[in-house]
């Protein structure tokens, strides 16, 4: 017997319809590439995303055709999020921090037809356009009078002139909710980047789950600043959660430094922000050096890389900001786990609660997890045994774009490449990336644990632990350190800091000081590049 309820496809356009009707005057504030602050609301975003849809019709784009963006977080990018997907095309967010050759490879692989870009990325577009064989239309996200004339980019038009030529009245098409809505390439350390193709259904289910109280806890009363870029995994789904709840959105544009982010938070009343640890490091650094305090920020989600305990401590204790540690990946839309406490944790003291908060968190409904050994046998949830982490769920990838049906799944589960423990309460803790874990004399050393200790040193700005070949132990850890400005540290001082904080054999064999640790396109430490940088390095005594 079939249920007698209305059958309605879960489509991204419905989010914008809802936001327009129920929260039309809720604000969207953006710091623009031009440097000024721009204010709009859901009503105007809805109207302009409909103009985008007309604009794409006018270009002759078909259902499922790819529209690429090279853009910061801002209102025009938001209009493209909804106008492109809502009209049945696929929004392909390109990462401007990638090497131009990678951008060309990805745009060609995705067969992008249109490229919309912020003016700050004009030099990239000038460098790549001749090799992007499928792109027929170039749109600069600017006013008509800001469009330079001699760019060399064929047919370049301004966004405002493009959408301005069209009506704000548009009937969103209805289609199968499993249709592709958007895509994002993940650049692994080996092989070519892989395209993850999200659907309308996966995006809506992810938004429902992401907004839940035990996930990101988003409501109409929030004012959210996503520092996490809209070019990386849909800014963790926040644009969709925002439209679903009608919260205020504040976009930082190109200005991610501590001062700019802090000032925007204060002037707009931001109570919730989201970003990777390296960005928060800059913000905390600014607060500490300038003796500033947040007056409105109440909670922040930190993910993309492990949140160092010192950072968690600083937010929670020094500034009274609740940290939600979260874990996920491009292949998971990205939310997998979020760390919120259970009732039973209320009895614990602050230090014990911190131990729970430092874990990557509990699976949210919709994501199933398990850890397995080398023979794929499931391991116990005891908080001690670690194994390869596998996931499944309706917003987890089943196959990469253009991979001709090759499945990355193992018995129906997606192998994340992370190594983790899960405790009896379901809290998952990443112990390492499987390729970063250090094998010393047959025992595993978690590079994250070593980094967390180093990061707690008051003179350390950033630290990365990598394994180095050792004739006796196979591999031994070293710690690569960037000191805070004006601080001088010695090898012995750093190593002495480890004493009593970890087992002796887990203490790094050496300290290497560098000016900067290479960061990838999404602000995470790039250990593969670091290993390249240190290829001539030899362990003391090895
Ligand atoms: P990406 O697809 O680029 O977002 O990278 C996903 C990977 O980032 C995951 O597989 C993890 O290795 C890492 N990651 C994400 N969040 C966390 C976290 N909270 N703690 C540790 N690693 C994380």
Strand order of the largest sheet: 2-1-11-10-12-13-14-15-16-20-19-18-17
* Regions with little confidence, pLDDT below 50 for 5+ residues: none
Distance between the termini: 71 Å
> What's the average pLDDT?
95
Instruction: Tell the overall outline.
Output: globular
Number of strands: 25
Strand content: 15-25%
List the helices and strands and how they pair.
Blueprint: H1 12-23, E1 27-31, E2 37-41, H2 42-59, E3 66-70, H3 75-86, E4 90-93, H4 100-110, E5 112-117, H5 122-128, E6 137-140, E7 157-158, H6 159-164, E8 180-186, E9 194-199, H7 200-211, E10 223-226, H8 233-236, H9 238-245, E11 248-251, H10 258-268, E12 272-275, H11 277-290, E13 299-302, H12 309-318, E14 322-328, E15 335-338, H13 350-357, E16 361-363, E17 368-372, E18 387-392, E19 414-422, E20 427-433, E21 438-440, E22 443-445, H14 447-455, E23 460-470, E24 474-483, H15 491-498, E25 510-513, H16 527-533
Parallel strand pairs: 1-11, 3-4, 3-5, 4-8, 5-6, 6-7, 10-11, 10-12, 12-13, 13-14, 24-25
Antiparallel strand pairs: 1-2, 8-9, 14-15, 15-16, 16-20, 17-18, 18-19, 19-20, 21-22, 23-24
The protein binds adenosine monophosphate (AMP).
The site of adenosine monophosphate has 19 residues, from β14, β19 and β20.
């Amino acid at each position: 017997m079939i249920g007698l309820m209305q059958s309605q496809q879960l489509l991204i356009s419905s989010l914008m319809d809802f936001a327009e009707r129920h929260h039309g005057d809720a604000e969207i504030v953006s710091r623009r590439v031009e440097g000024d602050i721009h204010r709009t609301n859901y009503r105007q975003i809805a109207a302009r995303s409909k103009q985008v849809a007309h604009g794409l019709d006018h270009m002759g784009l078909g259902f499922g055709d790819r529209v690429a963006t090279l853009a910061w977080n801002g209102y025009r990018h938001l209009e493209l999020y909804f106008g492109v997907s809502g009209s049945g095309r696929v929004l392909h967010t390109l990462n401007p921090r990638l090497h131009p050759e990678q951008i060309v490879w990805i745009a060609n692989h995705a067969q992008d037809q249109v490229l919309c870009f912020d003016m700050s990325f004009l030099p990239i577009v000038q460098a790549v356009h001749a090799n992007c064989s499928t792109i027929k239309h170039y749109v600069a996200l600017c006013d008509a009078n800001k469009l330079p004339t001699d760019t060399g980019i064929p047919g370049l038009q301004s966004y405002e002139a493009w959408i301005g030529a069209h009506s704000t009245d548009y009937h969103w098409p209805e289609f199968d909710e499993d249709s592709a809505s958007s895509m994002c390439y993940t650049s692994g350390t080996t092989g070519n980047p892989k395209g993850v193709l999200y659907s309308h259904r996966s995006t809506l289910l992810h938004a429902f789950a992401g907004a839940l109280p035990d996930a990101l806890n988003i409501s109409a009363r929030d004012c959210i600043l996503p520092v996490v870029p809209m070019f990386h995994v849909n800014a963790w789904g926040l644009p969709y959660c925002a439209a679903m709840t009608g919260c205020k959105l504040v976009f930082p544009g190109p200005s991610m430094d501590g001062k700019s982010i802090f000032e925007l938070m204060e002037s707009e009343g931001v109570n919730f922000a989201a970003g990777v640890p390296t960005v928060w490091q800059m913000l905390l650094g600014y607060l500490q050096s300038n003796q500033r305090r947040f007056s409105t920020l109440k909670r922040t989600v930190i993910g993309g890389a492990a949140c160092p305990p010192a950072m968690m401590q600083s937010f929670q204790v020094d500034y009274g900001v609740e940290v939600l540690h979260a874990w996920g990946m491009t292949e998971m839309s990205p939310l997998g786990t979020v760390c919120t406490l259970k009732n039973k944790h209320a009895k614990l003291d602050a230090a014990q609660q911190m131990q729970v908060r430092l874990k990557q968190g509990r699976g949210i409904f919709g994501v199933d997890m398990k850890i397995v050994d080398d023979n794929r046998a499931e391991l116990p949830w005891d908080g001690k045994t670690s194994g390869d982490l596998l996931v499944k769920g309706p917003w987890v990838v089943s196959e990469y774009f253009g991979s001709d049906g090759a499945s990355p799944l193992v018995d129906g589960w997606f192998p994340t490449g992370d190594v983790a423990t899960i405790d009896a309460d379901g809290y998952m803790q990443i112990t390492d990336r499987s390729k970063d874990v250090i094998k010393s004399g047959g025992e595993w050393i978690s590079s994250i644990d070593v980094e967390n200790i180093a990061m707690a040193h008051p003179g350390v700005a950033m630290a990365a632990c990598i394994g180095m070949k050792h004739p006796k132990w196979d591999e031994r850890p070293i710690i690569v350190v960037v000191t805070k400005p004006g601080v001088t540290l010695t090898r012995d001082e750093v190593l002495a800091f480890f004493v009593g904080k970890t087992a002796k054999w887990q203490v790094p064999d050496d300290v290497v000081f560098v000016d900067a640790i290479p960061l990838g396109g999404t602000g995470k430490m790039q250990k593969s590049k670091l290993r390249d940088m240190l290829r001539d390095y030899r362990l003391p005594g090895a």
